[in-house]
Amino acid sequence: MSFELPLQYLFLFLFVSARVSGLVLIAPGFGAGTVPMRVRALFILALSLLIAPLQAVDSLATPTNLGQLVWLMGNEIGVGVLLGTGINMIFSAAQLAGQIIGFMSGMQAADIYNPSLGASVPLMAQMLDMMMVAIFVAIGGHQMAIGALIDTFQSMPVTQVHWEAGSTLVVVEILSSAFVLGIKIAAPVVVTMLTSLLVLGLIGRALPQMNLQQIGFSLNGLVALFVLAMSLGGGLIWFEDELFHTLDHLRDRIVGHLAQI
After folding, report:
1. Is residue 84 within 8 Å of 142, Cβ to Cβ?
2. CA dist 181 → 30, 47, 92, 98, 119 (Å)
3. Where are the domains of the chain?
4. Under the phi-then-psi rule, with left for phi > 0, alpha for psi from -120 to 50, and beta for the rest, what region is 114?
5. Is the pTM here over 0.85, yes or no?
């Protein structure tokens, strides 16, 4: 009895799982530290079982030694990681905006542990990050991310990954777009805080007997929260537009670059 065919399907499922795990363990929502590892492993298994039967076994490059197996597995994981990293970089705009708002309003000392990053971040950054994750799920961003992953299997069959230098430039472009998005989200609060500091400075000149340090700290926090509440709707709309643009960019550029031989 020959075991060649079952072995090929075993390798097929293994490589599909590697590419899926690269996305699930990195992309926002899927790879959050608050999601138990067992749940993520079950999701990887279920998604791989759905995708693997749709792949052709004829084009599968069966490894003959451990070195080839590691190389092919690394390529498959790299595709998923590249997609997940590109999406995750958009969420760095929330961290940047929160850092700026916390610094300008004097609330940067109020840090909170972020399980997704594994580090303490300002409270404003954590709040914006949670809002963006909620928007990401509400607009179906997780479905679009999975759709982009499935597109990679259509343009790049399993074990047929070919890397090009231009594909990594897409990540740099996405990172620059995320930086601009973070500045845009924090801009209304920054302008208001600069105006508030200027007004407090003039009051301090006119009434030097007032304790402006204590008053200004509370006032800046309230003003920052008010301005953020008024402008956050526009910031989330910018985030949604940038997310759609990023997903299309990843699908058209990364998948296209990697598919070229």
Report:
1. no
2. 22, 32, 9, 12, 22
3. 4-259
4. beta
5. no
